[in-house]
Design a protein that fits this description.
Distance between the termini: 38 Å
Number of strands: 8
Low-confidence stretches: none
CATH topology of the largest domain: Immunoglobulin-like
Length: 164
């Protein structure tokens, strides 16, 4: 009886996930110890003094993975953090092994002195417009310091290309 049961158990590698799923085509059961492939890498990083961190994935990816970058441990008193992937790390076989990320905090707009004084209204308006233009020229609202921020880095295998 044991030989019949073992003949019905597929001990090979299970099929990878499929969008929408699919029923099996054979009347067999997977072995009790089978494992589905891991499709994600979840790690944490702390941004350095330049607002960057290099993260090594917990698995490699054949194709460039999707990234989800989220600040963790944020407080109500900190400005929002904008995150992006800057550079991919790859091994000698071309597999994706990690990513360098960058974070920048939003910052408040520059303070503008309100119009006042004995100047004529036209002079005040011109001076005010000039002050606003000067203050906002090349101003980067996302240039705030993000050093020390902790970031959850989730890399996910793409579903639109084959992993082989």
């Amino acid at each position: 009886m044991a030989s019949i049961a073992s003949a019905l158990i597929d001990t090979g590698t299970p099929a990878p996930e499929k969008t929408g799923g699919a029923g099996g085509s054979q009347a067999m059961a997977q072995g009790a110890g089978h494992q589905h492939p891991r499709l994600t890498s979840t790690t944490y990083a702390t941004l350095d003094g330049t607002g960057q961190a290099t993260v090594t994935f917990s698995r490699t990816f054949v194709n460039k993975p999707g990234l989800n970058l989220t600040e963790t441990d944020a407080t109500a008193s900190t400005q929002p953090l904008v995150l992006r992937g800057l550079a991919w790390q790859r091994d000698s076989n071309g597999l994706y092994t990690g990513v360098t990320i960058q974070g920048q905090r939003a910052q408040l707009m520059p303070a503008i002195t309100p119009l006042s004084g004995a100047l004529t209204l036209v002079t005040q308006v011109v001076a005010g417009v000039n002050a606003i233009v000067t203050a906002l020229t090349n101003y980067n609202v996302f240039a705030g310091n993000a050093a020390g921020a902790t970031v959850s880095v989730i890399a996910v295998a793409r579903s639109d290309v084959s992993a082989a």
